[in-house]
């Protein structure tokens, strides 16, 4: 469950959530994570690995909404997570182009979860593609539905106890702002999936997740976040490559230490070091037939591609916004 930490980083950009709500009660939050691990194990034991995997991927999507949203909107986000899971799984067998249409729709709808500069739900397109990939593995749609529903119910129950403090009403967000964000997300997601398909690139999900998280921060902070993610990924790949040369069980020990350091740097808000230790923790535990160095290089390539596409769609959206804001002036001058 190491890469679950990746989702929580967007919480640092959420000014609506009081620091007391996010950072208080660390013991209870630890208990929440422990309960999550136990429930995941119990789900796997009771229903099988397929249901447990659906449960886990749904949890990753809902961690940020669980903290940032209020009760009714949180329930809506949980329902949306289930829809994304089932839709991705059912659409994938019809081919690439229907999947791209579904991916675009998912991205546009995620735009409605934007409140001001706050993106409460960050990775719906990534989850859609993950479940699309699962459709060819022999998993049954019942496993997807059951795992997603259980994951959504679990996160709602945990959020009810851990993140149920008073939150101010969400900032207003115009339909244009939500459409602009959703369109940026849709265009970039489609480009990533198409390029990965044409190049037979195996880490499209990592590129797509990186892209979604880059767009989750405000436009003024996006370039800085891109630089931090790039630097952290390179440091993490170098560290993982070196650690892989050590004799057992040292790599496993490093994985545990890296996971702890991820949590530590996540809480202090150092995104570069967070990614630096997240990357080796993922690479050293990833089931793959490729050499670790090759896997690491392809992770770097995925992040580079995500950064380029995120900055391109951001610039394009900025140009369109400036044109839109200046158009009334032009009309009045005529």
Automatic annotation (TrEMBL):
Pfam families: FUSC_2 (PF13515)
GO cellular component: membrane
Primary location recorded for the protein, binned into one broad class: membrane
Keyword Transmembrane helix belongs to the record: yes
Compartments where located: Membrane
Domain (Integral membrane bound transporter) ranges: 192-313
TM region(s), chain numbering: 38-62, 74-96, 144-163, 179-197, 203-219, 226-244, 250-266, 273-290, 302-320
Membrane topology according to the record: Multi-pass membrane protein
Keyword set, alphabetical order: Membrane, Transmembrane, Transmembrane helix
InterPro entries recorded: Memb_transporter_dom
Protein name, entry field: Integral membrane bound transporter domain-containing protein
């Amino acid at each position: 469950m190491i890469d679950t930490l990746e989702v929580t980083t967007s919480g640092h950009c959420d000014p609506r959530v009081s620091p007391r709500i996010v950072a208080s009660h660390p013991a209870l939050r630890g208990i929440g994570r422990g309960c999550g691990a136990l429930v995941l194990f119990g789900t796997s034991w009771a229903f099988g690995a397929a249901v447990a995997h659906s449960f886990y991927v749904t949890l990753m999507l809902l961690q940020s909404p669980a903290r940032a949203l209020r009760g009714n909107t949180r329930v809506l986000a949980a329902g949306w997570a289930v829809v994304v899971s089932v839709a991705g799984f059912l659409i994938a067998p019809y081919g690439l182009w229907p999947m791209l249409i579904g991916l675009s729709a998912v991205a546009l709808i995620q735009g409605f979860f934007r409140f001001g500069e706050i993106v409460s739900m960050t990775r719906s397109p990534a989850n859609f593609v993950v479940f699309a990939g699962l459709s060819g593995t022999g998993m049954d749609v019942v496993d997807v539905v059951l795992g997603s529903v259980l994951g959504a119910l679990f996160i709602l129950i945990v959020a009810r106890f851990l993140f149920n403090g008073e939150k101010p009403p969400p900032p207003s967000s115009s339909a244009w702002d939500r459409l602009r964000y959703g369109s940026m997300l849709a265009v970039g997601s489609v480009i990533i999936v198409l390029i990965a398909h044409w190049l037979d690139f195996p880490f499209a999900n990592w590129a797509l997740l990186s892209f979604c998280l880059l767009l989750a921060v405000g436009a003024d902070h996006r370039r800085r976040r891109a630089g931090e993610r790039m630097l952290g990924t390179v440091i993490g790949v170098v560290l993982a490559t070196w650690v892989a040369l050590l004799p057992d069980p040292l790599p496993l020990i490093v994985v545990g230490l890296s996971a702890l350091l991820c949590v530590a740097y996540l809480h202090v808000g150092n995104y570069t070091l967070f990614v630096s230790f997240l990357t080796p923790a993922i690479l050293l535990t990833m089931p793959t037939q490729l050499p670790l160095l090759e896997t690491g290089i392809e992770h770097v390539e995925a992040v580079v591609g995500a950064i380029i596409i995120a900055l391109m769609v951001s610039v394009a959206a900025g140009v369109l916004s400036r044109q839109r804001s200046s158009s009334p002036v032009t009309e009045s001058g005529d």
